[in-house]
Amino acid sequence: MMNDELTLIKTIETENEMGDVIDEEIRTSILCSVESVTRSEYYAAAKHDMQPEIVFVINKFDYKNQSLVEYEGQKYNVMRMYEPKGRHNPTPMYIDRLELVCKGVD
Question: The domain that contains 100 carries what CATH number?
């Protein structure tokens, strides 16, 4: 069940009224479920000096390749996107799910 709220963040470069280039965040709130990083995923990532912390399961149609998300006031970088099979994709002909494997932003 998707009972949590996640904000997908896309950053684009725009110009302000003075012509300065600035970064603007486009934020989209969606529903998700929150999972722990599996032991195998954690150790596989550690071999490459990566430290995944949390997994968000979302509807595939909500995701537009955003590389940053926010959950409960904490920002996370999307390290990897994965299309699961089985329990997270119970009705793949109607709704496709994605898992976003993330690491917190310092």
Answer: 2.40.10.270
Alpha helices in 11-82, H assignment, sequence order: 39-46
CA–CA dist 16, 97 (Å, integer): 37
Q: In which domain, by residue range, is 18 found?
A: 4-104
Termini Cα distance of the chain: 29
| R_g of the chain, CA atoms, integer Å | 15
51-87 pLDDT, tens digit per residue, is 788 999 999 999 999 999 999 999 999 998 988 776 5
Tokens 């949590």 -> residue: 4
Q: Tell me the average pLDDT of the chain.
A: 84
